[in-house]
Amino acid sequence: MKKIGILFGQERSFPLAFVERINSKNIPGIIAEPVKIDKVIQGESSGYSVILDRISQDVPFYRAFLKNAALCGTAVINNPFWWSADEKFFNNCLSTKIDVPVPKTVILPSKDLPADTVELSFSNLTYPLDWEGIFKYVGFPAYMKPFAGGGWKNVYKLTDMNDFFEKHAETGELVMMLQEEIIFEEYYRCYCIGGKHVRIMSYEPRNPHHLRYVADFKPSKEKLKMMTDIVLKINNYLGYDFNTVELALRDGVAYAIDFCNPAPDADIKSVGQENFDWVVETAANFAIEKAKNQVEGTDNLTWGEYIKRSTAGKKLY
Q1: Structure confidence by residue, pLDDT tens digits, 233-270
Q2: In the list 121, 209, 289, 309, which could disulfide-bond 117, CB 3.0-4.6 Å?
Q3: Are 161 and 210 contained in the same domain?
Q4: Mean pLDDT of the chain
Q5: Residue 70 is part of which domain span?
Q6: pLDDT digits over 42-55, tens only?
Q7: Looking at the predicted structure, is the pLDDT value of residue 40 above 80?
Q8: Spatial separation of the C-alpha atoms in residues 199 and 216, rounded to whole Å
Q9: Are residues 8 and 75 in the same domain?
Q10: Of 185, 183, 255, nearest to 219 (Cα)?
Q11: Count of Cβ atoms closer than 10 Å to residue 26 Cβ
């Protein structure tokens, strides 16, 4: 019997529907359940052929559990080793090398010294930074956000240089990105599952959270294909099995704004019934596919083109 597990936190609608959908298919030799952990012993199997991870980004214990499980042959969605290494600034850097349009972006050292460091720890950092060059490159208005993490936490819209310094003083030990504002005509949030299934959803990030999927942009077939191609390229290079990509369209160009969301919102109350049904069904089918192909004791993780090309000594682009 192959078990598919889902590891989750406070959310309920998606995890429970995911388990129910898989089990309702009555596939011989495959069952699904919420993951159960009573102990984690080094080098011992988790008992799951597949685990869909929705919470380890917030719980280091779970991330360690998943790495051990993957080492023993569990197909973890998403790859916990890559997820641990990835962050939003790297995603932007990679995009500049694979011809995916992104806003002009720089990374900034934290305003406050990180714990267990002193001023001498930053001997290689020029102070003050070249603020004139940074502001000239990014321009204003701009957005400042953490280089890792999500959920629209600690995100600032900045109008000018003085506004930047005032807001940056509030960020403490957070490492922030400063990013060009893309004033868009249309905006979309796109699920990508299994590196091949894409759902493009109208999205309005300027609305209150519960109204963001109420937007009703109507993209042409050409725009849909352009966005689908971008979403697939990003996820195939990063190696995510389950992710969302946000695209802002300005003057016919689709800019990738936020595309490191390996545990994206899938709650029925926010994404709506149609999107919810799609993501539950598609995630269930993909997990079943992974379970059927899983081989005990081998590496069953997804590795992106960036890693595969790097280890093979091939050029990235």
Answers
A1: 999 999 999 999 999 999 999 999 999 999 999 999 99
A2: 121
A3: no
A4: 95
A5: 2-84+285-301
A6: 999 999 999 999 99
A7: yes
A8: 15
A9: yes
A10: 185
A11: 8
Task: State the CATH number of the domain containing residue 164.
Answer: 3.30.1490
Check pLDDT > 70 for residue 75. yes
Q: Inter-axis angle of helices 131-138 and 161-168, to 10 degrees? A: 110
**3-state secondary structure labels for all residues of the chain:** CEEEEEECCCCCHHHHHHHHHHHHCCCCCEEEEECCCCCCCCCCCCCCCEEEECCCCCCHHHHHHHHHHHHCCCEEECCHHHHHHCCHHHHHHHHHHCCCCCCCEEEECCCCCCCCCCHHHHCCCCCCCCHHHHHHHHCCCEEEEECCCCCCCCCEEECCHHHHHHHHCCCCCCCEEEEECCCCCEEEEEEEECCCEEEEEECCCCCCHHHHHHCCCCCCHHHHHHHHHHHHHHHHHHCCCEEEEEEEEECCEEEEEECCCCCCCCCHHHHCHHHHHHHHHHHHHHHHHHHHHCCCCCCCCCCCHHHHHHHCCCCCC
Contact 27, 288 (CB under 8 A): yes
Is the full-model pTM beyond 0.90? yes
My answer on whether 77 and 122 are in the same domain is no
Same domain for 8 and 67?
Answer: yes
The pLDDT score that the predictor gives to residue 172 is 96
Do both 6 and 80 map to the same domain?
Answer: yes
Task: List all residues 6 or more positions away from 38 whose beta carbon is below 8 Å from its beta carbon.
Answer: none
Q: Sorting pLDDT into bands at 50, 70 and 90, what band is 317?
A: low
Rounded CA gap, 281 and 57, in Å? 24
